[in-house]
Structures are given as structure tokens and as C-alpha cells.
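Q: What does the assembly look like in three dimensions?
Context provided by user:
Components: two
Sequences:
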Amino acid sequence: MRTGVFHENYRSAERLWDSPTARAWMAAFTVALFALPFWGSDYVLAIACIVGIHLVATMGLNLTTGNAGLISLSHAAFLGVGCYTVSWLARQGVPFFIALPAAGGLAAILGLIVGLPSLRVKGLYLAIATLAAHFILTFIFREWDSVTGGVPGTSIPRASLFGFQLVGDRHNFYLIFACVFLLGLAARNLARTHHGRAFVAVRDRDISAEILGVNLLRTKLMAFAIGAFYAGVAGGLLGYFYGNITPEYFVLTLAVFYLAAIIVGGLGTVLGSVLGAVFMTLVPEVLRLVAHASSQWFPGIAGLLLPMGQVVFGLLIIGFLILEPHGLAAIWSRARRYFHLWPFRT
Amino acid sequence: MSELSIFLEYSLLGLLSGGVMALLALSFVLVYKGTGVINLAVGEIMMLGAYLYYAAVVSFGVNPWLAFAGSLAVIAVLAIVIERLVLRPLSGQSAVSVLMATIGLASIIHGGVEAVWGGDTYTPPGLLPRTPLMMGDILIPGAVLGNFLIAFVLILAFVAFFRYSRTGITLRATASDPVTAATLGINIHHAQRLTWALSGLVGTVAGVLIASSVGLSPLLSGTALAVLAAIVLGGLDSVLGAIVASLLVGLIEALAAGYLGGKTRDLVPYVVVLAVLVVRPYGIFGSRTIERL
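A: Here is the predicted structure of the complete assembly.
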């Protein structure tokens, strides 16, 4: 019977998955996930793709807000920056493996600019600064017709690899989840480098962190830039997935969606991002199913879906903040501990 | 019409709309000073107040002034309930989580309003006569002038209330130092509850005034976010700053919209916010804080 994980050297303590059981489960999960296009239905696959895209963006916001404690309301706008960058580059014939990092890079540069006020102001003021940045960027999305196509939107050519077009959800699935795994591993690894620990130090008390030798300027800007990079990549994937895009997509509600995802999932962990992104993507789907099932009794219910989704997001944010501030990740680890230690109580 | 009178007309319109904006700014500043919370749901609370007013007058045929009083009462009660159910359990948490809670609140109210009234634009009946005022070449719409007057009187009343009344002084004491205020026998829970109710009242007045001049739709809540420019410029914790900065932002907005085109109205407040935050983060009148470990 396994009662805990015991480390005998630093190498094993620093591992990403610290027990053989965890590694085995992770491997099984990865294999099952990458086999999904062979056994999943079209609906499941489409949902999985959307979960993957949201997951990339959520991991980014979780690094900025959850790890480094810098609240960002401009995440949806960074997503838009990535999406329009990919759309413009793809029309110039740039392949996706260059366009996606470029999208992330441009978003990261904008993230640096938006993050600049974070040096002088923090907390509440920072939220207002990022909110202002959101509105300025979405204004540009609507008005810069030659690049963004203005309000009617623009289309994005399909990604292609060695002349092989990535058409349909089955192909896009691999592109999306390759990014998810790469960026997820990167986020997980970042947390155990000194940069990642500097993020947490800045979050917990930035003045103390500065006295301990953390360069506040560099750390805060880096947290913003990395979060924005993830959002940019997510936006690029979104563009390849949908094929065309309008500024309507990058509204403040989307930024609130990602905030809700990290709060519901759990701040500051990759596991939290995963749980939050999956949960928050499934909430509107469940709402849609409920609406569909009850449409014969309430004929007008389909029109209420969007506003009801907003109400549910708001309730989830407040509910988790008050009742379970560490999110689903905490519930997950409690459940895990229960099964590990069974039949003993914790 | 000469260049000068065009300029004067834009400026006057800007200043007058800035007066109404000052009411909204007051709604933000009250809560921030009183409880240390930036309430990003102010726009939604104001919008809900305006919708309640509209529903009472148009759907139920109540007298406009009675409907106005009714919506004020409902919003005051709602603000107290919000304070009790959402903000009180989160007191002592980090500013960022409280901020997120108000974002969640905004999302709930926004979704609720859209579910009940849909996304259409309504025109609620005005409380005031709409006869325009002519001053030489300059034309000022009656609603704009009336709104400004109401806002002006209300703000004066608030300033007097905070300066001279006993309740106002307890509220100020709680805002400046809750622990000392409690030691001196002030019921700070009561004071914070009252702060939220007052903020809701001011917001509702602003909402009804704005809705009766520009129309009522879910987009109304965005107006409040533009007020962020004013409160950041004025300094988050300064009532005087909020009023002066609102007038200033109203002026800048109207001039930009007049000379650079109406679309810039969506952009200008936010550019002002970013510029202020980079150059002078504590605003014109805000108090500088010194942090200690």
C-alpha cells in the first residue's frame, strides 16, 4: 500500500511527476488523448479543440495572474492580437510553425507595453490599466480595416505542413494539442526555475522580493510578456481552427471567461488551468444541452443562452472566491489524498 | 456659426456631460474610500437602476417620479444585499480577489438584465422638460442641461452631507481608519453597508439621467467604464478630484468627438487612463501611499 512519496535525493524531489504511479497515469492519459481523433465523434473532437485553445490562453493568464499576482483584463485583446497576426502572416504565405510563434511574440511585445504601468502601480490600478488596454486594442481591431478586415472580419487560410493541408477538426486537433503539451510543459518547468519562484515572491510581497534580490522590473514585465505570449499563440490557433474571425469574438466577456477559468480551476498551478479551462468550456455546452432539452416547454430559451452563461460565469467566480479560493485543483488533490490514504482518514 | 462658437458649444456640451459623469465617479469613489474596493459593477448597477425605472414607468404605468423613487429604493436594498453576501465574506482577502468578485457581480447583473430585457434600445421618458436652451449661436439640449443641474445639486448635497452631518462624519471616519473608528464606538459594518447603499443610489440617479438622454440598452454599462478615466485622473480616493477630473474628461471627450470624429469617443478615455497611469499614477488629487513591510 502506498502512503506517500518519499524522496531520497534532490533530483527525485524536483521531478515534474514525482511518483511512478503519477507518471504511468500521465502517460496513459497522453496516449488516450492523442488517440481521440480515432474514436471520438465530431462533436467531442470540436469541443476538445476549443478546450485546447482555451487551455493555452488559461495557462498564460494563470502565469500572469495566478503565479505573479498581476491581474490582467486585457487577455482577450492579446488573443485577438495573436489571431490577427496569424491571419495577416498566413495571407502572406507564412507557414504556421513560424506564424504561431510570431503571433505569440507580437502579443508578448504588446504585453510588455501594457505591463509597463505595473512597475508604478499595482493591484487595483493595474486592473484599470489593462482594462484601458483592452478597449484600445479592440478599437484597433474594429478600425484597422486593411489588416483586421474591420467589423465584418477576415478569413485565415488553412495551416499546411509540407504541402499537406490541415483541414477539419481532426488535423487541427493535433496542431492544437501539440501546442498545449509544449506550452503546458513549459509552464510547469517555468514554475521550478528561479524565474518562476521570483513570480511567486513578487505575488506574495513584492517589496520583500525586491529586497531579496528579485529584479521587480524584469520579473513583472516577464510575467506579462509570457502570459501574453500564451494568449497570442491561443489566438493564432483560434484563427486556424475557425478559419475566419470578427472583432466580436474578443470582447471583455472573454477576458472575464479566462479570469473565471483560473479562479474556478485554481490559481498558480497548471493543473488548475487544465481543470478550469475544461470546466468553463463545458459549462456553456451543458447550458446549451439543458436549453435544447427544455426548449419544448420554454420556447424562447435559446435566446437566453448567452446572458444565462454570463450569469453562471459570475456566480462561479463569486462562489469559488468565497467557498473554495484554491479552486478545483484543491478539490482534486483532496480527493486524491483520500484515495491514497484509504482506509485511513486524513 | 463661427469657429469660436463651435468650440464653445463642444466645450459646454462636454462640461455638462462631465457633470453627469461626476455622479458616476462619485459612485466609484464612495465605495473605494469607504471600503477599499474598486467596484467594477458600478456600471451594471446603474444600468439595472435605469431598467427598473423604465420597467416601472412604461410596463407598469407608474408616475415617473414615483418610479424613480421606487428604483432608488430597490437598488439601495440590492446594494446592501451585495455588501452582505459578497463583500463581507471576502473582507480581508487581497484586493485582487475582491476586484474579481465585483467583475463576477457585473457579469451576473449584465446577464440578468439581458435575459429579462434583451439587447434592444429603449427610450425611457425623461424626468425633465426637453426645451433646448439657446445662447446666441450655441444650442444646448434641455435634457443635457437638466441632467447637469440635477447632478450638480446632488453632488453639492453629498459634499455637505459628508462634511456636516453626523452620519457623514462617521462614514468618513470609517473610511480613513476602520480600526480606530470601531474603537471609538462607530459601527463600521453599518457604515460600510450605508456606503454601498449611497453608492448604489448615486449610480441609479446617474443611470436614469444618462438613459433618458442617450437611450437604454445593455451598452449603457460601458459608459461607467469610461468614467474610470476620470477617477484615475482625479485620484481614486478624492471626491474633489473625481468631480474636477470628470468635467475635464467630459471636455476632452466632447472636443475629441467634435473635431476628430465620433468614433474616438470609444478611445479617448482609455488613452487618458493609460497616459495618467504611466505619468502620474496617483492622479491629480489622490493621496500618495507609502508602502511598508
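Follow-up: The mean pLDDT of chain A is 84.
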